[in-house]
Design goal:
The complex is a heterotrimer of chains A (about 80), B (about 130) and C (about 280).
Chain A (H helix, E strand, L loop, with lengths): L2 H20 L3 H22 L2 H25 L7
Chain B lengths: L1 H29 L3 H22 L27 H31 L4 H11 L1
Helix pairs in contact in B: 1-2, 2-3
Chain C lengths: L1 H19 L17 H12 L4 H9 L1 H22 L8 E6 L5 E5 L11 E4 L8 H23 L8 H18 L2 H7 L2 H24 L11 H4 L3 H33 L8
Antiparallel strand pairs in C: 1-2, 1-3
Helix pairs in contact in C: 2-3, 3-4, 3-10, 4-8, 4-10, 5-6, 6-7, 6-10, 8-10
The chains are: A mainly alpha (about 80), B mainly alpha (about 130), C mainly alpha (about 280).
Chain lengths: ~80, ~130, ~280
Amino acid sequence: MIWQLDLIILAIVVVCGVGSIMVKDLMGAAILFGAYSFMMCLLWAVMGAVDVAFTEAAVGAGVSTVFFTAAVFRTTRRTKD
Amino acid sequence: MHSWVDLIVAHYNYWIYILLMMIGLYAMVAKRNLVKKIIGMSIFQTAIILFYVSIGAKRGATIPIIEHHGHGPINPEHYINPLPHVLMLTAIVVSVATLGVALALGIRIYQRFGTLEEDEILSQLRREQ
Amino acid sequence: MRWFGIVCVACLGLVLAVASSHFPPWGDPHSPASTHVSPRYIEKSVEETAVPNIVTAVLADYRGYDTMFETTVIFAAGLACFMLLRRLGTGPQEQLWRHIPTGVVVHVKGGVRPWIDPRHFEPIDRHWTPHDLVTLTSCRIMIPFLQLFALYVVAHGHHSPGGGFQGGVILGAALILLAISHNLRTAAERFSETTNGVLSGLGVSIYAGVGMACLVLGGAFLDYKELAGLLGVDKVHARSLGIFFVEVGVAITVMAVMYLIYRNVSSAGECDEGL
């Protein structure tokens, strides 16, 4: 529970979260979402929730990003907003 | 003055988690693209999981895996509360399953309408009526 | 719409922030969340179930009913994805066959299946790239170790962070890696659609089957200590073994459903070419 590490990781999490919904390219949004998931996993590891961090690393930063990329591949990559 | 600083220092974590939740909720409400809405839903879900897991954190305690048992009774103050972890494990895996279904629906909508923007889909639906 | 959204979300955030300032301070060991049921779980889980990882013990034994229905939800989500997207019986609308010695690509349209000599022609995807030695070799080396690690994670869920879900997701990720680095047809040769469907239901059946076995042997549903007579161990270790069986069931279902969702989403239902 080192509060400096906590604050830095929280700042990166908020920036990744805001970035992934503001970017106009859907592939970039999917990759930023993968980065957001991975930073969340680090946050939980710092808090001591090791099982939850393990699951989020496997699920969020792994499989979930692949699902988004596959869906963007099958639909369209550009978006107006 | 002292109590304001105490309040902020003790609760700023919760406020940042609420900020993350609100970012996800805003994306679900105000964005026009369907994939952005799905990303907003995922951000909202992970922020709620973060909120719950942080409730179980304890200062000066270790992870909830007991090692070298046999040295007497276990003091619960030395271990982080495992109950939110259990509930949130379920939540994470269910969230990825619903993400798969949401993306399948998005692909179906794209095959039917040719676009993923909400306003274009609505105008096509109105023209068909 | 955008400004209305911002105003509503900001008001809701302010209400939640004011409400959460009444919470106990962060990291307090005497907060109400940590003082009612969870001290009992922390103190008693090792002596009642012989599982040092408290999270696994609570997930699969004390709250085993929850986990069974969660596995059912995962299976239902895979089923929903399959039923939404899969188009059976239409056949590929256009096929691309590449002549292996010369590299000439034959484009066959209209669903007609001409006679193609498989010794000289290979089927390729629309977004085909030439054989990439580095990617293919490194993925071929990594996949068995990924699967071995996933089996380790499932088996050591009692003593280290891990368990059924994590191991199942890593197994599914190994299959998805095979499908991404090679192509979907190669993965389909190794893990056919029928196997996928059967395995995704098998895990839920294993979980419910263990519960039914406990019921048949005289105890309550999912009360693992009744398995002591069947397995020949004492009651504490019967609970530990019961936890292990249900974790295996969960891992099988999660693996099959992750691969099922990937296959359907990345090929938009056709299941012939993927990412």
